[in-house]
Amino acid sequence: MAPLTAKKSASSKTPSSRRTKKTNGKSPTKPKDENRVSKPAKAKESYSDKAVEARRAKDAETVDTFHENSNRVQKLIRRGPMGEPIYDTQGFELDYEKVSKATKLPRKRTRNSKAHMKMVEQRLSDDRSIKEIIGLSVGDVCATVLMAAQDRVARDLDMPYHKVEVEHYRSWKALGFHVDPETFKLENISEPERDRLLSLATGSALRK
Fold first, then answer.
1. What is the full DSSP assignment across 181-200?
2. Are residues 95 and 120 in the same domain?
3. Residues facing residue 94 across a β-bridge
4. Whole-number Å distance between alpha carbons of 100 and 79
5. Measured distance CA(115)–CA(111) in Å, rounded
């Protein structure tokens, strides 16, 4: 009887079409696709220890100022409307009625209430008027730019920053004041000036 031989499975045979040819003893590499090759990521911007410490000190100062103003507001509420005047960190007297109204819990109301929508529309209208008077384009306007314009009008008219309204911009223009709109572009406002404007504007709605 002939010896039994194990049958080779079909999987043990590799079709010639699937065999990988070797070149010089090395496996061929897949051709590079220049459109698919990932480029090395750009190195992240590094900050010096001095810059980091300066940023931390600035943030700490901002937090301290916030807490100081909050304490003054609470002190004013405790003293009441007939108490001695309290001044914020910028030296302006706080208004008891404004502070009392701002610290009260808001009443529940629908987000689309007529009063709220009217307030928003009035604010947008005022901003448009200010931009036209100063000569600012839509792309140049942000909170810092509007603060810079308000500060300029306040200084030219010799009045407190927080009391400047739209009619004062009109009076400012009627008196012949003019400024190059490029001055109010964000990239032309220095970092120290931005800090000054932020300090000047913070809490201005609570001043007398």
1. GGGGSGGGS-HHHHHHHHHH
2. no
3. 207
4. 12
5. 10
User: Residue 157's beta-bridge partner residues?
Assistant: none
pTM exceeding 0.85: no
The pLDDT value given to residue 112: 60
Q: Which amino acid is at 43?
A: A
Cβ atoms 75, 86 nearer than 8 A: yes
Separation between Cα atoms, residue 123 and residue 112, nearest integer Å: 16
- Domain-ending residue, one of 88, 106, 124: 106
> Amino acid identity, residue 2?
A
Residue 106 in contact with residue 113, Cβ under 8 Å? no
Strand partners, 26: 23
Q: Is residue 32 part of a domain?
A: no
Q: Does residue 7 form part of some domain?
A: no
Angle at alpha carbon of residue 75, lines to 97 and 201, rounded to 5°? 60
User: Quick check: 156 and 106 in contact, CB under 8 A?
Assistant: no
Strand, coil or helix: what is 141? coil
pLDDT digits (tens, 9 = 90+) for 178-193: 889 888 888 899 989 9
Span 31-56, pLDDT tens digits = 555 555 555 555 555 567 787 787 78
